[in-house]
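Review form for a predicted model. The reviewer records the input and the model, then writes brief findings.
Reviewer: anonymous (R2)
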Amino acid sequence: MSIKNKYDLIMFGATGFTGKLVCEYINSKYSDSLNWAIAGRNRDKLDNVSNELGLSVPTIDLDSNNESHVENVLKQTRLILTTVGPYQLYGNEIIKKCAELGVHYVDLSGEPGWMYLMNEHKAQAQQSGAKIVHSCGFDSIPSDLGVLFLQNEAKNKYGKPYANVKCRVRSMKGEFSGGTAASLRATLGSLKTNPEMFNILVDPFTLCEGFKGPDQPVDNKPYYDEVPLAPKCNSMFPKVSWHWGKVAGSVEFFLSTGLPNRNDTTFCVRRVTSVLSSFRSAGRKAPAPIA
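Model under review:
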């Protein structure tokens, strides 16, 4: 077995709240079909998580800010899944090396400014074959797939996609994790050192690589329906629906806002829309998922 194919997947961040949930899921669903390992910055904590979850997988020390350390770990796997944020603090070397080495990458980033900056590795990733996939968590996946499903149904039923889509959250369990709060603090800190980042964050199409769609609703305030939502609506969101974008040309849908203070979701949906549209316009199929 070559060192490059030693693992199918390395899960980085196994000792965190979300990381433990991911490990538990992988172990319950894919333990017999995946050759995987868990990684983190503290071996003792990794061993504790492994014992707690009953894992029978190797543990790997990984300092994500040490370039040579990151490279040595990535050379052992086909894919790294990381839940370690803020990504703008702990993800730079990993993205860089994944792009260089052709290692696939998955995260649950909610940091659109950082994702914009990571486009600098696009050419390298295309050359190496690395697939870089951001924001694979709540609430990006429900929004992304939900809008895609809705618009496909609209085309099947009416022959064209909806011009506007509204999203409502009737109830929600849980709260912001420590990682989400840390990402917000890191983003605010980056604005102090790099004020130009503000223009990136306020551009609704900042992740669309030059594409500019129609004007989007202002996403720093709620929009109110003409009639109240159902009585069972969570009191956190009375009468509020978040309005999602408009159609323009071959681009079929845009999202303008998600949950309160979670604009990263909207960037992701616009990004995916523009990419899919570019493939359709060129008569090409969308990229296949990682095999």
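Findings: The CA atoms of residues 32 and 44 lie 25 Å apart.
Further findings: The chain has two domains: 3-133, 140-173+204-281.
Recommendation: see findings above.
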